[in-house]
Amino acid sequence: MRDKIIKALAKVTGLKPEEIHLDTSENEEFGDYSSNIAMQLFSQSKEQRAKSKEKNELLINQLTNLKSPQELAEAIVTKLKSDKQLMDVIEKIEMAGPGFINFWLKKDALVDNMIQNVNDKNSYGKSDFGKGKKIMVEYAHPNTHKAFHIGHLRNISIGESIVRLLVANGYKVIRANYQGDVGMHIAKALWGIKKLGYEDTEDVKARVEFLGKAYARGSTAYEKNDNAKKEIQEINKKIYSKEDEEINKLYKETRQWSLDYFESIYKRVDSTFDRLYFESECFESGKDYALEGLKKGILEKSDGAIIFPGKKYGLHDRVFITKEGVPTYEAKDLGLVKLQLSEFNPDVIAHVVGPEQSEYFKVVFKAQELLFPETKGKQLHVPYGWVRLKEGKMSSRTGKVILGEQLLDDAKTSILKEYKGDEKTAEQIAIGAVKYSFLKVGREQDIAFDLKKSISLEGNSGPYLQYTYARAHSVLRKFEALNPKHETNSNVKNSNDSNVSNLKNLDLNIVSDLEIRISDLNAEELSILRAFVHFPEIISMSARNYSPNLLCNYLYDLAQKFNLFYQKHGILRDESIRVEEQESVRDFRLALTSATGQILKNGLQLLGIESPEKM
Fold first, then answer.
1. Domain contains 436
2. Cβ within 8 Å of residue 476, ≥6 positions away
3. What percent of the residues of the chain are helix, what percent strand, and what percent coil, each to the nearest 5?
4. What is the Cα–Cα distance from 523 to 527, expressed in whole angstroms?
5. What distance in Å separates the CA atoms of residue 418 and residue 402, rounded to the nearest whole number?
6. Can you tell me the distance from the alpha carbon of 494 to that of 521, in angstroms, rounded to the nearest whole number?
7. How far apart are CA 334 and CA 320, in angstroms?
8. What is the domain-level CATH number for residue 503?
9. Suppose 361 and one of 96, 271, 381, 436 were both cysteines; which one would form an S-S bond, judging by CB atoms 3.0 to 4.6 Å apart?
10. How do residues 358-402 score in pLDDT, each as one tens digit?
C-alpha cells in the first residue's frame, strides 16, 4: 500500500521515491498515511524549483502560480485522484492543515490485506529489499574469564533481533561474535586463581563463579598492590608468548570453562553464531599490519609506542602497539577486519557495541580505511545503552555484577510463583520478558531493569504480547473444538448489495471463504485492519535503522487494539448481530483473530521471543 502511494507521488512530483516522506498517521482520524511533500516542494529555493519543474508537467504549469503549500497540496491531490491504479486501493485523499496530504485506504483493500496475512502465514511481513547484500552482524562479545552479565544479555538480545530483521528483509547475514580471550583481564583472572587456589569441578556454573571471584581479586590487587601489578603484567606476557607450560595449561582450561558456559547461554536464548572470533587469533597479524602501517607513514612512533595520529583527521591519537611491544585492541582490530573480509567479504560489518566505544571506532575505522581501502564504508558501529543498577553502571571488577543467567532464573522463578504455569512455558515467558524489556526502548537508551514490570501481564511487556497471542489462539482452538466439521457460509450477502468483499481461499482450517458487509465493520475491527497494513513497513523500517524497538511499539499497539476488540465484541457469537448474519460475522472475526495471532507470532519471532499457545 505504502509503495503504491509513494510511486504515485513520485510520478506526480518528479521526485525520486526515496526523496518522498510518507508517514503512518498517528491519529486514524487523519487517514492511514500522511505526506508533507507539498510543504517540502514549496520550501525549495527558486533554483531547486527550476530543476524540479524541468522534470514534471504539474510543476511547470502550476508551481509558479501557486501562492501557498495548501494550493500546491490541492493540485497534487487533484492529479493523484486521476491515477486509477492508486484509487483502486484509496478511499479518499484530502489536503489538511498547512499542506499535509492525507490518504485513507479502502476498507475492502484492508480486508484483502488481512487475507494475504493469513495465507502468507510465517512469511507475512517479509521483503527482499536486501536481496543480494551481505551483512556481518558482530554481537554478544563476552570476554573469557569474566562474567556474562546483563549488559551482555542486552547486547545479544539486540544483535539477535537485528539479525532476524535483516534476514526477514532478504539480507544474507553472517552471525559473528568477537571475544576477548587474551589481555590484562585474563592475566588478572589467572593471578587470582593462583592466589585463591585452583578449584576444578564439573559444574559449569560453579566454574564461572570461581572465575568471577578470581578476576575480582586480581583486578583489585592490580590497582592497590604494586608487586601484584608486576606479577600480573608478567603473566600477561606469558599468555602472549605461550612459553610458560603451567600458565598455558591453566589458560587453555579456564578459557574453555568460559566458552562452555557462554554456549549454554546462547542455547538458552536461542542464538547461534556462524563464526566465533577471538583476540588470540588476531593479535599477531594485527601487530604485523600496524608495523606495515608504520612503514607506510600511516602510523607513527611516539614515546616508544606506535600510534595512529588521529588528530590529523579531526579525531584523537590512539596507541596500536605499546612501548613494550604489545599490540592493543586497536591493532587486534586490524587483524580482525582482514580476517572477516577474507572469510566472508561482507558488504557491511555492523558492530553491536556499547556507546563508550563510539570515539574508539571512529579512529580505528579511519586507520583501517587508510591501511585497507577496501574497508571504506563497510564498517558500522551500532551502539546500545547501558543497563544500570541502582548504584550505577555494572562492574565485574569489583564482583558487583548481575549475571545474565541469574536474571533469567529470577524472572522464571517469579513467573512460576505468580502464574503457576509449567516449567517450559515459564522459561519461554521469562526469556520473553527479559528480552522485550531490553528491546522495547530505543537502542541507545540506558535502562534500569525492573523485574516486576517485565513479567507483568499488563502494560508494555513481553508477557502481555505473549498472553494476547495465547488469547487469540485460545479463541481459534475453542471454535475448532465446538465445530470440528465446520464449513463457513460463503453466501452471506449484503442486504442492500453495497460494497461486499469476497474473501476466497482463506487458508485456515476454520475458514475457507466468506463474504462480509464492509459497511458493517465496527471501529475496533477497522482499527485492527489498519494496523495489519503497517506490519511489513515496520519490519523494513526496524531493519533499516537497526531498531527493534520500532517493532516492539507496533506489536504493543496491535495487542492493545485486539484486546479492546475482544472486550467489546463477541467473536464466536455476538448477540447484537442479526441472526442471518451471525455466521459471516463470526467467520470474519475468526479470520481477524487468526491474522492478529499470526502477526504477533511473526513479530515476536523477529524479536527472538517464543509464543506459547497457552498461558
1. no
2. 510, 590, 593, 594, 597
3. 60, 15, 30
4. 6
5. 22
6. 12
7. 9
8. 1.10.730.10
9. 381
10. 999 999 999 999 999 999 999 999 999 998 755 555 454 545 678
DSSP state string for 179-231:
E--SSHHHHHHHHHHHHH-----S-HHHHHHHHHHHHHHHHHHHHH-HHHHHH
Task: Indicate the pLDDT class of residue 607, thresholds 50, 70 and 90.
Answer: very high
Tell me: the pLDDT tens digits for 436-481? 999 999 999 999 888 899 999 999 999 999 999 999 999 999 998 8
Q: How far is the C-alpha of 587 from the C-alpha of 593, rounded, in Å?
A: 10
Please give the residue range of the domain that contains residue 27: 2-105
Q: Which of 53, 72, 105 is the last residue of a domain?
A: 105
Q: Which residue has the cell 485486539?
A: 562
Give the integer Cα–Cα distance in Å for 63 and 525: 41
| Structural domain includes residue 460 | yes
Here the CATH number for the domain that contains residue 34 is 3.30.1360
**Would you state the cell numbers that stand for residue 86, as one nine-digit string?**
492508486
Looking at 52, 73, 105, the residue that finishes a domain is 105
d(CA 89, CA 107): 8
What's the pLDDT band for 500 if we cut at 50, 70, 90?
very low
Residue 137 is classified by DSSP as E
**What is the separation of C-alpha 236 from the centre of its chain, rounded to a whole number of angstroms?**
37
Which helix (H) or strand (E) element contains residue 178?
strand 172-179
- Residue 407 has which C-alpha cell? 536474571
The SS3 assignment for 401 reads coil
Cβ neighbours of residue 29 under 8 Å, at least 6 residues apart?
none
Question: Is 186:222 a contact under the CB 8 Å cutoff?
Answer: no
Q: Are 53 and 27 in contact (CB under 8 A)?
A: no
- Cell numbers 502494560 correspond to 459
Please give the average per-residue pLDDT across 66-91, as a whole number: 92
Residue 217 placed within a domain: no
Cell matching residue 238 = 606469558
Query: Where do we find the cell 460475522?
Result: 585
How many Å apart are CA 340 and CA 245, to the nearest integer?
31
Burial of 265 (0-12, 13-18, 19+ CB in 10 A): buried
Taking the CA atoms of 249, 250, 251 and 253 in sequence, report the sign of the dihedral they define. positive
Measured at the alpha carbon of residue 432, what is the angle toward residues 430 and 433, in degrees to the nearest 5?
Answer: 65
Number of structural domains in the chain: 2
Cβ atoms 308, 298 nearer than 8 A: yes
- Sequence-separated (6 or more) residues with CB below 8 Å from residue 481: none
Spatial separation of the C-alpha atoms in residues 390 and 587, rounded to whole Å: 51
* Residues 462/403, Cβ–Cβ less than 8 Å: no
506459547: which residue's cell? 612
How many Cβ atoms are within 10 Å of 329's Cβ, its own excluded? 19
Mean pLDDT confidence for 105-129: 89
Higher pLDDT, 10 or 392: 10
Report the first-to-last Cα separation within the chain, whole angstroms: 35
User: What local confidence, expressed as pLDDT, does residue 67 receive?
Assistant: 79
